[in-house]
Write a structure and sequence with these properties.
The protein contains two helices and five strands, in the order αβββαββ. The protein has a single domain, classed as 2-Layer Sandwich (HIT family, subunit A), CATH 3.30.428.
């Protein structure tokens, strides 16, 4: 997707504060954080919405959650707690049409 901001970050066409990447996923800091730790974990494969996932994508989804676990430990929020959020569609607050997992932590989070 040439107009996808996250695809541009993956392809190094746009800058991002990348904290993790491998051949399947990438994680970087959210540019509008709502918590002291607010990171986005994305698949390198373009998938617009969680409802577009297919059975063949199960490895990518598992990898995203395992990367979230690793990053939460590294960011020092695994002991106190953190939130993982996937918004699906505009009404849920998804602003970029590329599947992404928010990792939020670093303070007591209110229930939205």
């Amino acid at each position: 997707m040439t107009n996808c901001i996250f695809c541009k970050i993956i392809n190094k066409e746009m800058p991002a504060d990348i904290i993790y990447q491998d051949d399947k996923v990438m994680a970087f800091k959210d540019i509008k954080p709502v918590a002291p730790v607010h990171l986005l974990i994305i698949p390198k494969k373009h998938i617009s919405l969680a409802c577009d996932l297919e059975l063949k994508d199960r490895e990518i989804i598992g990898k995203m959650f395992l990367v979230a676990q690793k990053i939460a430990r590294e960011q020092g929020v695994s002991e106190t707690g953190y939130r993982l959020v996937i918004n699906v569609g505009k009404d849920a607050g998804q602003t970029v049409a590329h599947l992404h997992l928010h990792l939020l932590g670093g303070e007591k989070l209110p229930w939205a």
